[in-house]
Write a structure and sequence with these properties.
Elements lengths: L3 E5 L3 H12 L3 E6 L2 H6 L6 E4 L5 H5 L8 E4 L5 H13 L4 E5 L3 H10 L3 E3 L1 H14 L3 E6 L4 E6 L10 H4 L1 H5 L1 E7 L4 E2 L13 E7 L4 H4 L1
Parallel strand pairs: 1-2, 1-4, 2-3, 4-5, 5-6
Antiparallel strand pairs: 7-8, 8-11, 9-10, 9-11
Helix pairs in contact: 4-5
């Protein structure tokens, strides 16, 4: 069964998430007090509603209790973010994801019941820093607070060696999910397969072990 998602606040993040989910066939409700922004999404999502997200009654009338996920994506409006998280929690929404502009706001929203906090500016900055730190990084995705999925080309001293020889899991706690050889990604990995310079590896890495793939 397809999930239903409410995106409260059409910030840059909110718009991006709403567009992506809708294109993937997810039932999406968007709400914002800016009528012009809402009208831009009327043909892109399932429901597009204009409303004051600082008002509890407005939030309750959105039908959030029927949603699998609520994403609170206001840019700067702390009052609307707080009220949206509180009402979503009151209505027993299974998963509440909220945007926070700083650590103080993050702490407040977590205490009010948010299940996950997104800090776009911080995460974007960390992503840039990691890409600068390692020239072989292609992409980096936060998985949890402690782990990440990393896409990269093999380090020079890995090339010509197999995963069995490198013992990445035993030595560095690195799990190889798949290897792309340029044509396809193979998730059924032969541990004796020699790595090539042109391969792309998909790894799950504990963040404390990132130096093992970045140096």
């Amino acid at each position: 069964m397809s999930k239903s998602v409410a995106v409260l606040g059409l910030s840059k993040l909110g718009k991006s998430v709403a567009e992506y989910l809708s294109a993937e066939g997810v039932e999406v409700l968007v709400a914002d007090q800016n009528e012009e922004l809402v009208n831009q999404f009327s043909d892109k999502v399932t429901y597009a509603i204009v409303g004051d997200l600082t008002d509890p009654n407005t939030l309750k009338n959105l039908g959030l209790s029927n949603m699998d996920i609520v994403i609170v994506a206001m840019s700067m409006n702390l009052e609307a973010s707080i009220m949206s998280v509180m009402i979503s929690k009151e209505l027993k929404v299974p998963r509440i994801i909220a945007k926070a502009k700083d650590e103080r706001m993050k702490e407040v929203l977590l205490r009010l019941g948010a299940d996950q906090i997104i800090q776009p500016e911080k995460e974007f900055g960390e992503s840039i820093a990691r890409s600068i730190m390692s020239s072989n990084f292609i992409e980096f995705f936060d998985l949890t607070d402690d782990a990440a999925i990393v896409e990269l080309t093999p380090k020079k001293h890995w090339v010509g060696h197999s995963l069995k020889e490198l013992q990445l899991r035993k030595k560095h706690g690195i799990n190889v999910l798949g290897i792309n050889d340029g044509d396809k990604t193979d998730f059924t990995i032969d541990p004796d397969q020699k790595l090539k310079e042109t391969d792309r590896l998909f790894l799950v890495v504990e963040k404390k072990n990132l130096k093992a793939v970045s140096e």
